[in-house]
Structures are given as C-alpha cells and as structure tokens.
Amino acid sequence: MERSITAFSFALVASLASALVLRVQAQPGFISIDCGAPNSYTDYQTKIDFSTDKGLIDFGESMQISTKLINQKSWKWLKYLRNFLNGTRNCYTLKPDKGKNIMYLIRASFWYADYDYKNRTPIFDLYIDVNYWATVDNYDKVHYEIVYVAQRDDIQVCLVNIGKGVPFISALELRTLDNAIYQIESGFLRLNFRYDVGGLNSTIRYQDDVYDRIWQSWASPAWRMLDPGTSASALYNNNDEYKVPGEVLRTAQTARDANTSLIYIIMPYNETSKWIGYFHFAETQILPSGQQREFLVFTSDGQFTEMVRLEYLRPVTVVSSLVSGSQINFTFKATTNRPGYPPPIINALEIFTIQELLNVPTAQDDVKALTSTKADYTVNKDSWQGDPCVPSEFAWEGVNCSYGNPPRVISLNLSSSDLKGIISSSLSNLLELESLDLSNNQLTEAIPETLANLSKLRILNLSGNKLNGSVPKALKRRHEDKTLDLRLDNNPDLCWASSCPKKEAKNSILVPIIASVSVVFVVICVLSIGLIRRKQTIEASDRTLRLKNQPFKYGEVSRITGNFGQVIGEGGFGKVYLGTLNNGDVVAVKMLSESSKQGYKEFQAEAQLLMIVHHRNLVSLFGYCNESRHMALIYEYMANGNLRQHLSGIVKIHPTEDHSKILTWSKRLHIAIDAAQGLDYLHNGCKPPIIHRDLKTTNILLSKDFQAKIADFGLSRAFIAENDSHVSTCPAGTPGYLDPEFQSSGNLTKKSDVYSFGIVLFELITGRPPIMRSLDGSASMYILEWLIPIVESGDIQRIMDPRLQGEFDINSAWKVVEIAMSCTRSMAIERPDINHVLTELKESSGSKSSGSFEMTSLELHSDNAPVAR
Ligand SMILES: *[C@@H]1O[C@H](CO)[C@@H](O)[C@H](O)[C@H]1NC(C)=O
Ligand SMILES: *[C@@H]1O[C@H](CO)[C@@H](O)[C@H](O)[C@H]1NC(C)=O
Ligand SMILES: *[C@@H]1O[C@H](CO)[C@@H](O)[C@H](O)[C@H]1NC(C)=O
Ligand SMILES: *[C@@H]1O[C@H](CO)[C@@H](O)[C@H](O)[C@H]1NC(C)=O
Ligand SMILES: *[C@@H]1O[C@H](CO)[C@@H](O)[C@H](O)[C@H]1NC(C)=O
Ligand SMILES: *[C@@H]1O[C@H](CO)[C@@H](O)[C@H](O)[C@H]1NC(C)=O
Ligand SMILES: *[C@@H]1O[C@H](CO)[C@@H](O)[C@H](O)[C@H]1NC(C)=O
Ligand SMILES: *[C@@H]1O[C@H](CO)[C@@H](O)[C@H](O)[C@H]1NC(C)=O
Ligand SMILES: *[C@@H]1O[C@H](CO)[C@@H](O)[C@H](O)[C@H]1NC(C)=O
Ligand SMILES: *[C@@H]1O[C@H](CO)[C@@H](O)[C@H](O)[C@H]1NC(C)=O
Fold first, then answer.
1. pLDDT, mean of residues 415-423
2. Hey, which of 293, 295, 337 would you mutate to test ligand 5's pocket, going by the most ligand atoms within 8 Å of its Cβ?
3. Residue 490 burial by Cβ neighbours in a 10 Å radius (0-12, 13-18, 19+)
4. Ligand 2: residues whose CB is within 6 Å?
5. What is the pTM of this model?
6. Which end of the chain is less congested by CB atoms within 10 angstroms, N or C?
7. What is the DSSP-derived secondary structure letter of residue 101?
8. Distance 739 CA to ligand 10 centre (A)
9. What is the CATH number that goes with domain 541-637?
10. pLDDT for residue 239
11. CB of 306 closer than 6 angstroms to any ligand 8 atom
C-alpha cells in the first residue's frame, strides 16, 4: 500500500516539475535521447523530455528519414537518426544519476525509413558495454530493449559495423528500475514480447507506466476477451512492486471454462537459449461470493509450476524459472474443473531471454585513466570509444592490453597525436603500463614525477616535445640502471641536471644585443683569476676600456697592418692581416668584407660585447674599427696558428717556426683543458652566458708557447637565461661539429657547444678531421660513425692518432675518450656541463701518475673490457 502511494505522488511531482521548470527538467531517472535531432523537446503524447545527442557521442552524422515515410509512424523521436559512416564501433555513453549496481531498462530504437534513399536496410550489431546485445536487422522490430544492471557508473551502447551497411540509431532511452524487480542471477534480460493482453489502446507507456515500459496491445484469437469492467485507477492504487499500469491490467483474456487451459507457446530459434516469463494477473471481475480464481501456471514439460490465487483488484505477478527447448508451452490451467468454477485469465505478459555477460571489461582504473587522458587532450580518434581493450577486435588505436581477468592496458602509443599541454597525471594511474610513447607532440612543462610510479614501464618516449624543468630523479635512476628505455631528445628546455634554475622571460634573449647600439651591456663576466696571467689580463682590460671609448680609425688600421701587407688567413667574413701596435704587440687584424652578411649594428654591438669578455683562454679583442663601411676586428696574434693545422700538419703558418713537431699527448691534454676553460668562462663565468656556436679546431688558436685560446666569436650570442636556455636563430656552425639535436630542432643551447667540444676532443685523440674523406674525396664519413664501433669494441689503440706513435698513457686516453663520448651524446640533456668536462679533463691529466680513476660516464655496450679495467 505504502509503495503504491509513493509511486503515485512521485509521478505527480514529476509531471508538475516538467510543467513548471521550463522544459529542461527531464523525468527523474530517465535519459531520453532523440539521436540526430536538431533540438530537444517534450513529446506531446508521452510528455517525455527528449534531448539531442550533442556531447554524448563524438562521431556520426545527423539524418532525417525519407519524407515519403515520415507520416507512417507518429513517434517524433523516430524522425531523426544518426548514422556512422566511419569507425567500426561507435558508442553512446550514458551516465545515469544512480550509477552502477542499479537496474536499468535500456531501449534503443531503430527505424531505417529509407533515410538514405537507398532502400537497403542495413544490418549491424548492438552492444551493451563490452557485450553483444543484438543484431539489428531492421525488419519489423523498432525497439530493442534490455533490463541491465550497470557494472560501471557509465553505460555504453555501441553500434558495430559488420560490413552489411551503415549503422544508425533513432533513439536511446534509459529508465531506472527498482532493484527488486526483474532480478536474475547473472547476465541481463533481453525483451522479446511485452503484451497488454486484450488491450484497447495500441500501446501504453509513460505516464501510465512509471518505468515507461511499452505495453503493446495483443489478443489471442483462441482466447476470450474479458469485459474490462473495473477502473484503471483502482487497480493502480493496489499495484504491486512491478507497477504494471492499471490501464494494462484492466483488460485481460480468459478461457471458455474451467476445463480449458490457456497455452502460450514460444518456439525458440535456439534450443539452448534461456527464457523467462513474467505473467501479470489481476482479478477485475466481481465473482459470486465464495468463488476465487485459482489456477496453475506451468510449462507442459514440467520445468516450472506455480499456483496463483487472485483477490479482487490485487495484482499478482508470476515469474517463471529459466526454461529452454525447441518449444515452450506456458500453460494456465484452473486447479479444479468443478462446474461454474472461474477459468484462468491473463492480463499481461513479458517474455525475455537471458543474455550472458561473456566479456569482462577492462579494469576500471585503467578505463578511468584513459578516459581522462582522452578528455585532457581531446583525443579525436574514431576507435577511442567504448571500452579501451574489449572486445579485443575493437581495442583503441595505440592501446595494447593484456587479456587477464580483468584486462589491463599495457601499452599506450600517442606518438604524433597533436597532444598539447602538460603530461596528464592520469597516465600515472595506468599501473600495468609497460610502454608509453608520447613522442612528437607539443607537451609542455615538467615531466611528472609520478610517472616513475609505473613500476612495469620499460619504454618511455617523450622526445620531440616542449617539456622543461629537470628530469625527475627517479626516472633518471631507472634510465641509468637500464630498467627504462627513456627517450627525451628534442626537448630543448629540458634539463638533465637535478637543479635547474627557473627560466626568466624567454623572449627577451636577443633583444639587448641585437636591437640596440647604445645598449648598456647586460653581459658581465667575472675577471679571470688565472694567477699566472693576472697582470696581463688587467692590463688588457685597461687597454680595452681605452679602446672602447676610442675605436680605431681606418687609417690607423691601415698603418698597423703596413697597408694590409701580410695576409695570414682568410675567414668567413674576410681576410686576416698581420699587424703591430705602437707598443710592439703583434696583432691579427680581421677585415670584414663588404659582402659580409652581418649588418652594421650587429657588428658594432658584437664588437662591444666581445671587448668585455676576457679570459686567458679566449683570444683577446684589442679593438675594432668601423668607419665608413670599413669594419675591422683587432685581435691578439696567436703565433702558432690554429689547432687543426697541428693535427693535420699540412700548413705551416710561420716560415721561421717548425710546426712539423707533433703535438704530444700531454700537450694535447693541456690544449683540451685550455679550451674547456675558455668555454667554461663563456658558459658559466658570464651572465648571461655566451654560446660560442661555432667551436672547432680551426677556432682554437695556439700561442707561441702552445697555450690554447678560443677565437672567432663571429657567431656567438649572449643569453639572458642562466642555464640550458636556448635561442632559435638561423642555422650556424660548421658541418661535423653541429649538435644533431640543434640540427633537428633549431634550438641552440650550451650543450651544442659541448657537443662541438666533444668532436674537438676526438680530433685531438685521433688526429682526424670531423668529416673524414677518402683519398679521392669521393666518400665521406663522420668521425663518430667511424670511431664509436671501435671504442665499443674496447680497442682504443686503433683510434689513437698514429702520429703519437703509441706514446700516451692508456688510462688517460680512455678517460678522454669517455669524456668525448659523453659530450657527443645525441640527447643534449645527457651531455655534461662544460664545467664538469673541465674537472674530468683535469683528472685525466693527473691520472697519468695515479693510474686509477672511476669510469663513470662512459656507456660501453660491450663485454670486451677495455685494457684499463
Ligand atoms: C569520415 O572520415 C573521413 C576521413 O577521415 C572524414 O573526412 C569525414 O568527415 C568522416 N565522416 C564523418 C561523418 O565523420
Ligand atoms: C485507452 O483507450 C481508451 C478508450 O479508447 C481511452 O479512454 C484511454 O484514454 C486510452 N488510454 C491511454 C493511456 O491511451
Ligand atoms: C544458441 O545459444 C547458445 C547460448 O545462448 C549459443 O552459445 C549458441 O551459439 C547459440 N546457437 C545459435 C545457432 O545461435
Ligand atoms: C506444447 O503444446 C503442443 C500443443 O498445444 C504440443 O503439441 C507440444 O508437444 C507441447 N510441447 C511441449 C514441450 O510440451
Ligand atoms: C469439465 O469436464 C468434466 C468431465 O469431462 C465435467 O464433468 C465438468 O462438468 C466440466 N466442467 C465445466 C466447468 O465445464
Ligand atoms: C600488443 O602486445 C602484444 C604482446 O605484447 C604484441 O605481440 C603485439 O604486437 C602488440 N600489438 C601492438 C599493436 O602493439
Ligand atoms: C608508436 O607508433 C609510431 C607510429 O604510429 C611508431 O613509429 C612507434 O614505433 C610506436 N611506438 C612504440 C613504442 O611502439
Ligand atoms: C607516486 O609518486 C609520488 C611522487 O613521486 C609519491 O608521492 C606517491 O606515493 C607514489 N604513489 C604510489 C602509489 O607509489
Ligand atoms: C620511442 O622510443 C621507443 C623506445 O626506444 C621506440 O620503440 C619508438 O619507436 C619511439 N617512437 C617513435 C615515434 O619513434
Ligand atoms: C616551463 O614552461 C612553463 C610555460 O610553458 C613556464 O611557466 C615554467 O616556468 C617553465 N618552467 C621551467 C622550470 O622553466
């Protein structure tokens, strides 16, 4: 009693609500979607609020049925539909308020109605979540309905293209049921028939039926119609838990007499399928006193029997057991055949088949993680609908799963998928993940530390993004102990070191140097504190200050060089002449040819910049001249020419000196240390740092006592940011020395110089140029291609410069090879800072005597232990 009153007032509230609260307020517990419809509306017959399918599905196209057939069915929600030309599986996601473990009636409706004017009804499959529901063949059936207990908070209804035409859907409805009814042990119920026996109205549904079941009127010609005497509301008030509408129960069919049974026969296509019947009875007749309708409900083969005794206006529902067979006879037979005894009746019936849940859905945490990843990046892939792994033939593109119970996501490949923003934290919840490829997207900011939580992860590819910050320690550790194949290349702002200073305003990097002539320089370099050279350095800077105020006049330059009498070299910008200052200092004067591409302003700004930079391992700029298109840079003269000349031994720069003398290993080490010191000063001693951009052996000059100094800042630029920042400018540098990461990304960092320095080291070790040519010049090979396999085989004797004639310390040589290897790693962030290189080089020159050192940075993939180990 209480129950039916509740139901009544509930229906009243619902209808009031829909009348008052605009039309947005749908019926509680109902989801009603008119697929493909342009607008939402309230159906005038049922008063159900139908909404459009916007936001419930990513794909498909809205269509309207053929105008010729539009009046054939009056139901408005069948007039539009959505069809799916693309994708094998397309899914609607329903999110009922009550979520999982609740029983729902779900109804999908399909009316082809020649919408595509092809007059060819398509055949396709319908799935509920991961399980097969039905094959929609569009002959006479419009509604496909199930009673389903949600396994998840979301319910997915999917249409699967089976190659027999384009799937489509007209309407999709969900109704929340009380858990008490339609209970089965496993699987779900698929509706075959729901009849209002002896009904007067062709269909009865909402609002007569609070659950919006659709009762179709039906009558057996073999049975008798019963006079629908009583009022529907009387029956409704007495309703049982099934809440069959009074209008449905009011009508019934009966047998001629108590000797006659009613038999309802089902002939299943499939003998093994399981059937269940719900039979609804209500006594609508006032029987002579003392009489009561009493009959058995059973199947003739004895699978099921139950007795029914009816009281006036009290509905009763009999639920059969699960029955199967090639023919099922549901029989209704009076318990006694005494004359005058009332015959059996039947008011309504529902026949379902049981459908098993054969497929287990993917673990919910994985689904959640992938779903929020999809949302975070608005992934727009046809296949990214429904369950990610199940059924396996519809698994999401780029997702690979293990098919245990439950299935788990083990790999995710979203390479080149146009992902933007941060790395979604949801990815860290894919706990079984073994491989994650997010390469070639536009992911920004730091790598989340939580990725290291993925203990099974073996491959992590984040290359080709815009990540910044430092690589989380835990990931580095896993990379180092080789449990993780970590790819981070082409992330110019990413930093391998553990503490990376926060980057400041990014765009202003070049502004102070290029844009303005009269800049107050922001570049400040600490004075070199090399003890031996201290005096000269300070003198040099005095001179510089003087010269900065008074640049050389062209006439002065002409006089210094003896009217440009002695050419000592030729660079990219023009010729270099020998000169002598008034005080006797020998200088090299670099004239910039008029065709030089560098503009006037850049030249001046740069000249001023370079005069501030002072270090004993950098070639000093004494001054410059820029006067009516004559531009000159005046450097200190380096008597022993450039390093390349000494390694190849081809050119003699000064006729009076003997350069044929081979550089010894220890001299080479000193040159390496000198050059590293110069570079360290540019990178770490100047604020902002200066990137050389064109470090090579021809730019490392040697003084008369073979002190090395770095020259040619023609391409250098200062940097605002302290660490690992970059600028993107036009390509610069020299082939063979160019950082491969810079070549592919165009982003230049200090690590690009470190790479070039590594190549310089290899030249010192091998004596060979960075690009080795065959004698006839027809073939060439990069030095790294040649030497890496040899180094990996552990045989470094083969790469050592033969002109050393074996005179070198093997430990020291190994150490330098190691350092050079670490400098030339293809991933910029894996290369050490020049400061670190310098320390290691100093150790290597010291190791000659000690003979023991740690081989930390070399990654040799060889079992052939090098001699030193
Ligand atoms: C189907 O896919 C093609 C190619 O990917 C696309 O151009 C078209 O818009 C898609 N059609 C629909 C209805 O989604
Ligand atoms: C069913 O039909 C009867 C008689 O035609 C009518 O009075 C009644 O309103 C109808 N009920 C419904 C729910 O349509
Ligand atoms: C009959 O139903 C059973 C179980 O429901 C199923 O395994 C079998 O494939 C079906 N047979 C046919 C012919 O459909
Ligand atoms: C069902 O009833 C028909 C006749 O009404 C009978 O021929 C058939 O054998 C019955 N089937 C079973 C399984 O009892
Ligand atoms: C049913 O049949 C039996 C015997 O065949 C007969 O005695 C009885 O009167 C009948 N009952 C009715 C209600 O016709
Ligand atoms: C998925 O994983 C299995 C087993 O690890 C592998 O054999 C298969 O090639 C993978 N498929 C894809 C598409 O990566
Ligand atoms: C991811 O897919 C791309 C191309 O689609 C492929 O090149 C790459 O190897 C895949 N990544 C992994 C880890 O298999
Ligand atoms: C995941 O990683 C974070 C940070 O690295 C840590 O705080 C958290 O405890 C980890 N969670 C699990 C489940 O290991
Ligand atoms: C990312 O790196 C993994 C592991 O080395 C590799 O298998 C995969 O092919 C890479 N992805 C792409 C798109 O190159
Ligand atoms: C990383 O980049 C973001 C902008 O994409 C910026 O807000 C953040 O400060 C950067 N972090 C570091 C450490 O450079």
1. 94
2. 337
3. buried
4. 200-201, 204, 208, 247
5. 0.63
6. N
7. T
8. 24
9. 3.30.200.20
10. 58
11. no
Distance from C-alpha of 132 to C-alpha of 371, rounded to nearest angstrom? 22
Give the position, in ligand 10's atom list, of the atom nearest the Cα of 446.
1
Read off the pLDDT of each residue in 470-494 and give the average, rounded to a whole number.
88
Task: Please state the three-class secondary structure of 366-392 as a single string.
Answer: HHHHHHHHHHHHCCCCCCCCCCCCCCH
Report the nearest-CA residue for atom 10 of ligand 1.
86
Structural class in CATH, domain 640-869 = mainly alpha
Whether the CB-CB separation of 132 and 393 falls below 8 Å is answered with: no
pLDDT at 851 over 60: no
Which of the listed CATH numbers 3.40.190.10, 1.10.3720.10, 3.60.20.10, 2.60.120.430 matches domain 24-179? Answer: 2.60.120.430
What's the Rg (C-alpha) of the chain?
43
pLDDT above 60 for 512: no
For helices 810-823 and 783-792, angle between their N-to-C axes, nearest 10 degrees: 130
Distance between Cα 738 and ligand 9 center (Å): 24
- Residue 652's pLDDT is what? 42
435-437 and 459-461 strand pairing: parallel
Q: Regarding predicted confidence, which is higher, 376 or 862?
A: 376
- The rounded percent of the chain whose pLDDT value lies above 70 is 81
In the predicted model, what is the mean pLDDT of residues 298-308?
90
Distance separating alpha carbons of residues 337 and 343, to the nearest angstrom: 9
**Mean pLDDT of the chain, nearest integer:** 81
Looking at residue 163, what is its pLDDT?
Answer: 94
Q: Which ligand is nearest to the CA of 273?
A: 3
Q: Is 694 considered catalytic here? A: yes
Fold classification of 364-495 is 3.80.10
Q: Is 718 exposed, middle or buried (0-12, 13-18, 19+ CB in 10 A)?
A: buried
Ligand 7 atom with least separation from CA of 413: 1
| Pocket residue to mutate for ligand 3, from 131, 188, 270, most atoms within 8 A of Cβ | 270
Q: Where are the domains of the chain?
A: 24-179, 194-355, 364-495, 541-637, 640-869
pLDDT at res. 582: 75
Q: Is 499 a residue whose pLDDT tops 80?
A: no
Which helix (H) or strand (E) is 598 found in, with range? none
